[in-house]
Amino acid sequence: MRIFSGIQPTGEIHIGNYLGAIKQWIEFQEGNDCIYCIVDLHALTSDYDPETMRDSIMNKAIVYLAAGIDPEKSTIFVQSEVKEHTELCWYLNTLTPIGELERMTQYKEKSKRKKKRSNAGLLNYPILMAADILLYDTEVVPVGEDQKQHIELARDIAKRFNKRFGETFKVPKAQLPKKGARIMSLKNPKNKMSKSGKKGNAVSLFDDPKTIEEKIKSAVTDTDNKISYDPKDKPGISNLLVIYSEFKDQTIEESEKELKGESYKVFKEKLTEVLIESLDPFRKKRRELEKRREVYVEEILSQGAKKAKTLASSNIARVKRKMGLV
Ligand code: AQP
Fold first, then answer.
1. Cβ(121)–Cβ(77) under 8 Å?
2. Of 9, 26, 222, 315, which has the most beta carbons under 10 Å away?
3. pLDDT of res. 197
C-alpha cells in the first residue's frame, strides 16, 4: 500500500504526535511504500521566524529518524522542495467550495485564535493537505483524530475531480490508532495535547527525565484518587491511563488491573518511569544524529525529494492532461 503522512517543522514533537501519527508510521514501514513529508508550507500559515525555519526543518528530519523512520524503507522529504504540491493545490482550489473550508474545525479554531491575523493560507490549508496526499496515489493516511475531517475533505475532492475529469485519483483512507488517536493536554484534559498549547501541556519526545517528572507531577487529575478509565467524568486520569497503556504496550483494562488500589501519586511515579525509559532511546539517537546533520541528514532529504519529485511530476502531467491544459 502507498502510505503518506506529514508533520509541520515548527514546534516540539510531543507524545500526542508520536502516539497519534509517528508510531503508526513506523509500523507501516514493514511491507508498504511509505512517504513521510515535512510540511513546511503548512507551517507558513502560523506565526514563524524565518531565521529559524530552515533549522526547524532539519531538526524535524532528525526527529523522524530518531523516532524510528528508516530512510532505507521510507521516503523522507521536505514539501517545499517538490513544487508540484503547490501546483496541484491550485488545481484543487478551483474545485472546492469556500463553504466547505469555512466549516473545518481546525480553521474555525485557529482563525478565532488569530482574529485579524488570520490568513487565506489557513483557510486553504486542507486543500494543500489534499494535494499532498493525492499527488502520490496515497491509499492510507496515518493521522491523529484531529486530522480526520481534513482527510474526509481530501476524499471528497478526489471524488469530485474523478467525476468531473474522469478517474484520476485514488480515494485515500484515514488510519487512526485504536488508543492514542487523541492525547489530551496535561494541563486541561478537555483540550488536545498540542505544540502551541499552554506550557507544560505536552511531554516532548525529547524531554529530559527531570522535565518529564515535573510535567507528570503537575498533570491535572481529580479528587477521588481512583484509577479508572472514564473519559467523561475523569478526563485527566483517563488520559494518563491511555498514555501509560500505550507506552507499556498493554490494554487500558490491563493497566486498570495493574494499578488497582494505587494512589495517584504512585501512578504518576510509575508513568514517569515508563516515559523516561521509553523516551530514552529517542534522546540518545537524536544526539547521535545531530553530529551527522550536515552530510547524512541533508543527503536523506535530497534523495527523498528526488524520489518524491519523480512520482509527483508524472502525476501532475496526468492531471494537466485530464484538465485539458496540455
Ligand atoms: N494530541 C494529539 N493526539 C494524537 N495525535 C495528535 N496529532 C497532533 N496532536 C495530537 C497528530 O500529529 C500529527 C502532526 O500534525 P501537525 O504537525 O500538523 O501538528 P498539529 O496537528 O498542528 O499538532 P499540534 O501539536 O496540535 O500543533 P498545533 O498546536 O499547532 O495545532 C497529525 O497527524 C495529528 O493528527
1. no
2. 9
3. 87
Cβ of 313 below 6 Å from ligand 1: no
- Residue 143's nearest CA partner among 6, 308, 282, 1 is 6
* Amino acid 118: pLDDT: 87
* Model pLDDT, residue 187: 97
Query: pLDDT tens across 278-318, in order?
Result: 999 999 999 999 998 889 999 999 999 999 999 999 999 99
CA–CA dist 243, 19 (Å, integer): 8
Give me the residue label for grid cell 503547490: 86
- State which residues of the chain have pLDDT below 70: none
- Name the residue ranges covered by the structural domains of the chain: 2-180+292-322, 209-287
Q: Which helix (H) or strand (E) holds 245?
A: helix 235-248
Catalytic residue among 73, 110, 179, 226: 110
Nine-digit cell string for 176: 487512526
Per-residue pLDDT at 196: 85
For this structure, is 192 an active site residue? Answer: yes
Q: How many Å lie between the centroid of ligand 1 and the Cα of residue 247?
A: 18
Q: Compute the distance between CA of residue 158 and CA of residue 136 in angstroms, rounded to an integer.
A: 12
Q: Do domains 2-180+292-322 and 209-287 have the same CATH topology?
A: no
Rounded to the nearest 10°, the torsion over CA 107, 108, 112, 114 is 0
* Fold that domain 209-287 belongs to in CATH: Tyrosyl-Transfer RNA Synthetase (1.10.240)
Pocket test for ligand 1, best of 7, 14, 17 (most atoms within 8 A of CB): 17
Question: Would you state the pLDDT for residue 294?
Answer: 83
Q: Does domain 2-180+292-322 have CATH number 3.60.20.30?
A: no
